[in-house]
Amino acid sequence: MAMEGEGEGKEVPEVLVLGPPWVFSTLESQFPNKFRYLKPWLFPQLPLHQFLTSYAQSTQALLMPVIPLLNSATLDCLPSLKLVVTASAGVEHLNLADLRGRGIAVAYAGNVFSEDVADMAVGLLIDVLRKVSAGDRFVKQRLQPTKLHFPLGSKLSGKQIGIVGLGKIGTEVARRLEGFGCTISYNSRTKKPLVSYSYYSNVHELATNCEVLIICCGLTEETRHMINREVMLALGKDGVIINIGRGAVIEEKEMIRCLIEGEIGGAGLDVFEFEPEIPKQLFTLDNVVLSPHAAITTHESFGGMAKLAVENLEAFFSNKPLVSPYLA
Amino acid sequence: MAMEGEGEGKEVPEVLVLGPPWVFSTLESQFPNKFRYLKPWLFPQLPLHQFLTSYAQSTQALLMPVIPLLNSATLDCLPSLKLVVTASAGVEHLNLADLRGRGIAVAYAGNVFSEDVADMAVGLLIDVLRKVSAGDRFVKQRLQPTKLHFPLGSKLSGKQIGIVGLGKIGTEVARRLEGFGCTISYNSRTKKPLVSYSYYSNVHELATNCEVLIICCGLTEETRHMINREVMLALGKDGVIINIGRGAVIEEKEMIRCLIEGEIGGAGLDVFEFEPEIPKQLFTLDNVVLSPHAAITTHESFGGMAKLAVENLEAFFSNKPLVSPYLA
């Protein structure tokens, strides 16, 4: 089943693609012949486990997005698997202990998306505070100019910003907001020795002392539902939550209640607890800006991720160290 | 016709309010008794010149927004006028030579709005590049999750930004975008000695060397239609224009043509050439984000402007120097 590859006539390595990740079309168009891509979605009549059992018994490498979960039943159908490349910065869809037990390595997005995600966090924050998309709607729906005034927004410059999770993305968000004259505080597992921002060891205290919380952390058992009702009440009725981390870091049902009842001031959300479902109650709230998990979706980031995925796959197939290992 | 004022029983000075400026409701609620406000709009059956001739013959101070023009016919009806307070950073609606000739001073917004305007410029830029309001629409209109993907955006970090007019607002915009890892260049009448950004003495050259133009200058005879078809073609088909300065700095008809024909990549517009009219052709363009001249409309800026207007009026009525004079 060899295809025409880079080395004419030479068999190119096989990569199973699940999902497929959103970035895959970029990857395939940039590197059409680098690998032979196994695409189960081209056989919609075939259950996945049957596809894998029939076509992927010798497959060593898998490329996938952050949804769905990679469960052990799927892994059981892939006896030769040695590498998972996930096109995501988060790895909460992977059971790392299980993978480690099976001797399967993991490569991930590393910091490829960090700048884009930080840019989007700031974009969502400005949108919520300054009603940018509401203003766009207001103009486009108002066919005749009237004396009707658009509601006032809230000033970003000078705000007290709380970053939840000061990794690469959180740090990039903080750097951007410093340029706006904002004051930065943060919460993370441990105080960062070289960082001058105020540190709060618990997120409730951070919320009490901030006007905005920006969720930049990954999803783990520790961070799941970390932003609960109490934290939101501590943030207060003018407080704004931005989430570009993972949906389930916030207790979504409680957040919706707080938004509807005015117990927090607004939210800008790129991620949701039960993606791809987005709660319809959020659709009618004026103080909420929604984004279709698009914090990473630029031509530049997709090009970068495609290149990084290919570099990891090439390293693996040449027995070299992975370029962005999560689990080596 | 005295009203209960701060000094009980004392007659408070009279201020004519034209427009009224958007900020006036904030001002009046914060300072209800500081002045006696003359409000022609409460007499819609009375032509303005007749209102002025009947009620404003001894009026010394005028508060107004940037629209409409303050023409000499209006000034002729105000023989006692000595001060115009405009609730705007721009003064293109005032004939300064005429005012000077009549011995009328002008106070303006100074830098009260600069941070908010700069925040909005960045917000519009992120929105155009990263499709924030389009994403919000996409989510809210998509009632069932589908496999349909939202189109990719363009990365802000690292972009070449051209600032047109490096005054207070332009400088604030530049400072913010440095935090995003952008490279800043600028055009202004003269090179700023203490600024390290690349200077281009003409805007065409700036456009040739940049991916984004942000219009931060005021409207003068020199800047009117400065952004013409040639400048837009130099910016190029992926280029983005943000305008938070004044609409007429751009040749609007040409910009619309360039947007429709893909000769530039997108635009984020808070101001328009013939406000309050906004060309309807812009309403259907996916690559355009529109804002209802809302770059200054925050509670904080309105509070600041109300305070500044009152301080100028108080200074004037106590024969002290104006706090933010444009023409003293």
**Care to count the β-strands of chain A?**
13
Number of helices of chain A: 11
The CATH class of the largest domain in chain A, by name, is Alpha Beta
Poorly predicted sequence stretches spanning 5 or more consecutive residues of chain A: 1-7
The appropriate CATH architecture of the largest domain in chain A is 3-Layer(aba) Sandwich
> What is the percent of helical residues of chain A?
25-40%
Radius of gyration of chain A: 22 Å
What's the overall geometry of chain A? elongated
Which protein chains make the most extensive interface, counting residues with beta carbons within 8 Å of the other chain's beta carbons? A-B, 57 and 57 residues
What are the main properties of this structure?
32% helix, 328 residues, disordered N terminus, 7-stranded parallel β-sheet, 2 domains, homodimer, Rossmann fold, 13 strands, alpha/beta, 15% strand
